[in-house]
Design a protein that fits this description.
Elements: H1 5-32, H2 41-74
Helix pairs in contact: 1-2
Length: 76
Amino acid sequence: MSEYAELDELQASYKNAVEAWIAAIRREEALASVNHTLAEVDKWEQAHFDEDEMRSAAKDAKAKYEDALREKFFGF
């Protein structure tokens, strides 16, 4: 087992959360880029909420990873 198994796991969680956030941004961007007459406002609005949720998840995962790094290497 790796000395950094917990950090590896937290880093992977953070990277996955960022990838999910990127995908949500792309879904929102795709809905924002359609012809005006084809715009589906409700789907676009939901995509915005989904993007915001994924952003929050990425920020939370980042904070957990940073906290674990500080604890491992600096003891606080």
